[in-house]
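haha ok so turns out i had the wrong file open the whole time. this is the CORRECT one, sorry everyone. sequence first:
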Amino acid sequence: MTCRIAVNLSSGFDPGLNAVIGGVVSAASKLGWQVVGIQDGFEGLLFPERYPSGGIVDLSPELMDRMIGASGPVIGTATKVDPFRVRTINAENQVEEVDRSDELIELVRKNNIDAVISVVGTRALSVIFKLHRKGLRTVAVPRSVENDIAATQLSFGFNSALSRTAEILEVAREAARSARQIAVVEVLGEYSGWLALQSGIAACADAILIPEIPYDIEKVAARIRAKLQGNVTHALVVVAEGAHSVVPQSDKRTANPLKHSLSPLATGHEGGHVIERSGYMAKKIASDLQKLMNHETYPLTLGPLVKGGATTAVDRQLGIAYGAAAVRALHENQSGVMTAFVPPELKFVPLSDAINKIRTVPSNSLFLQTARSLGICLGDES
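then structure:
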């Protein structure tokens, strides 16, 4: 029976990380198991000399009772170190990438860790899957403020980001009203438009542009121009960072979002090309609309700003439930699985069903139907 388990976090910050860890610690303590945290992803094991604690910290119920509501994760997050491609300086003083995955698994064994619960996003799932195939006993917990992990209906962190985004959009709308401008607000969403779509509906945006629906900027301009007749002098456009315009027939390419890789530097596609992340789409849409409409616009990019602040009750309870479910999976002798919220249950799905897939907004989505019924422009019709 597993008696000493470890928790680690992939790179980046999402609301509710400590809630997941708290769920793991609470559920494990009921079974009499010990829980430790690997600091900064797997770096605590690969580079123990960097940490006063040796890279591993004890996670007691008493500690988590104090930290579960804290905003920053108690064990830190990875800095994008992939154990299959660890950058090192060789004998010739050159930077090279080395596969340290076998060494990592041996370090897990030497530290008497029976299993690892990894709280990861889309990119890191494939790393955990490869480690599992090499013999690591592991359970993954999905985290994503973009809600783009395919095998689950809801990743923790999304609800908090959604609430914060909607609040900021309301402020942007009021600013636009006061200045008589068109506010163009870019939100997170490289490959899926859940955050833009749902926050845009909540803020009653005039247009919402998402990666799943290529937009025609002239149609967007026509819809906003029609609204600005009479006494209305402002508008709100919400655009996901991965939104892209209709590609001319002569320049169309195979529309596979994963073809461009899940690189931290990759984002949406403009004219079939990968464009630089963060801020590009807000500036482009604002500039294009101003040229077409002769109405002052201003771009605003939210980016990771929406990841900060307090965690919503929904994310906190979901995070705790995910953590407890991961322990239950190990107790049931499962490995190589991911906890997934499939309403009304938390289930376990094989990692092979979750990797290299993106949860996108389907064409028959209730949220798309709602947006259209509200008269919100989605860029595909005048």
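The mean pLDDT is 86.
again sry for the mixup
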